[in-house]
Amino acid sequence: MSVANSRPPKTAMLLAQQIVADINRRGNRVGDRLPPERLMLEEYNVGRGTLRESLRFLELQGVIRLRPGPGGGPVVQQPDSTALATSLTLLLQFENAPFRTIAESRVGLEPIMARLAAERMSEEQLADLKASVDTMKLHLGDQRVFLEENKRFHDVIAHGSGNAMFGYLVDALLDILDGSAIGIDYPEVRREAVQEAHAQIYEAIAARDPLAATEAMSDHIDQYMRYAERKFPDVLDEPITWAH
C-alpha cells in the first residue's frame, strides 16, 4: 500500500460522511434545512473550520446548498451528474485521454441501456421519449434545439433503463462530449438521419422489443462514430480538458 493510500481520512471528510448518514437517518428530503451551525458544532463536537470545510465539500458535491443570511444555512439538494462529470473529466485529462474515449464508451454502453429501457421504461418516460423525437423533427432547422433534444433523448433512455448508474453516467458523458463544445457540426441532412434513428429506437422501445432496441441503438451509435471519424477525426483525437 502506498503512503498516500495509508493516510487516515481527514476529519472533515469523516464529518461529511456522518452528515450524509444523518440526512438519510432523519429522512430529510430535498428542500429541508439542516440544523444551524451552532447546533451542528455541538452535535458533532468539532471546530468551526472543520464543519465549514465539510459543508463546503457537500455543497460542491451537490448534496446541500448553503443559503446565506438570517434563517439560512445548509439546505438538502438532489445531487446530479455535475460532480461526476467533473471528476471524470479530471481523471481523463490526467491520463491525456482524447474525446474518442468518451465516444467509444457510448458504443458499448448505450445499446445495453436501450435493451433495458425496452423492458423497464415507464409509460411516462415513453411519452417523454416520443415528445423528444417529435420536437426534434419539428425543429430540424435549429441546431440548438437539435442538440438539446439529442441529449434529452439519450438521457431519457438511460434513466428509463431502470439502472441509476446508467442514468448518471450518460448524463456525465454527454456533459463532457457536447458536440457543440468540441467542434462537431451537424448539417441538416445529418440531423434528419439522427431524427430518423431516434424514431426507430423509440418504436422498438415502445414495442417492448429488447433485441430491436439494442440493434437500433447500436446502429445509431455506430453511424455517429463513422460520421465523426470521417468528418472530424482531429476533434476525436483532441485531449479532454476541464476547460471544455
TrEMBL record:
Ranges for domain HTH gntR-type: 9-79
Any Pfam family hit: GntR
In alphabetical order, the GO MF annotations are:
DNA binding; DNA-binding transcription factor activity
Keyword NADP part of the UniProt annotation: no
Coiled-coil intervals, chain numbering: none
Entry-linked InterPro entries: GntR_C, TF_FadR/GntR_C, Tscrpt_reg_HTH_GntR, WH-like_DNA-bd_sf, WH_DNA-bd_sf
Please indicate which superkingdom the organism of origin belongs to. Bacteria
In terms of SUPFAM superfamilies, this protein maps to: GntR ligand-binding domain-like (SSF48008), Winged helix' DNA-binding domain (SSF46785)
Q: Which UniProt keywords apply?
A: DNA-binding, Transcription, Transcription regulation
Which PANTHER family does this chain map to? TRANSCRIPTIONAL REGULATOR, GNTR FAMILY (PTHR43537), UXU OPERON TRANSCRIPTIONAL REGULATOR (PTHR43537:SF5)
Name of the featured protein: FadR family transcriptional regulator
Species this chain originates from: Aeromicrobium piscarium
